[in-house]
């Protein structure tokens, strides 16, 4: 297939759905409770809702929306740290657009900008580096956020800054890693996930090998999946074949973009610039060992956390907010008490309502939920 429309072909989707409907009848475990399949990545969550795939699946399959949206798992304390940096004199604070509206304990970056802080939206860390070169009398900070997908571009930007001797550029590093997080989910005592749709974008960088512990130690299958409707349906079908055959393997449906061993140049840049943090705090999931990276000592001059004073506090989510339960798959977004009422995409109370990849935002936009009758 060459064009995107071909990955949305209704006849092929119907054929895959027929196969899915057939195969669930061959899995005895489905008769006791629905199979729980977690889509790890927020991009998958968005596609599943955008194309209405959840409603097309048989009742024997329950999709659980995982933690793979970096904006959604950003704890309030880190947003407060961003604002503390941005409000310091002589600072230009740069960020991707979807982080602007994430609520901190008192305000979001957008509200801080409205209050006079020099906060600018950029499309890449290289844009922020250019800004630093154009404004040598300012301290330009880039808010580095995201999984292994965005980590290489941030690493390459620091390598470039060093090469060019730029001395007024800083990174506030909030990059996180997916593998320890999947492990934390697998280790949780109430874990009932039967299989995983693996994150396509992250896998382009890390390849297949890092997932092998999931099949080896936890006997759960994982299929790395693309983001179009046929990708997702085919990946689900591949998972169901494994479950029926009582296999637990790592398979790759997204072969058109995910090489088996990942992207070596990207991994090399990441390991040159970053090292694992001892732990990182995730919204709703708590502190997870080795689940984030920090800047290596050899790049310390670019580290905003060493250069600026930040509060670095752990801030609890508002009481009404049930983002943590949604992130762990314990409740559906619409079961949160404030869904569609106090918490909407225009006035998000929790981070899952901010990003289009957040499951609450996806349910709100595409889930056809009658919020007046919840
Ligand atoms: S509705 Fe809002 S507060 Fe509730 S879980 Fe979703 S994002 Fe969090």
From TrEMBL:
Transmembrane segments: none annotated. Keywords: Iron, Metal-binding. GO terms for biological process: protein maturation. It holds the Pfam family HypD. GO terms for molecular function: 4 iron, 4 sulfur cluster binding; carbon monoxide binding; iron ion binding. Belongs to the HypD family. NCBIfam families: hypD. This is Hydrogenase maturation factor. It comes from Neptunomonas concharum.
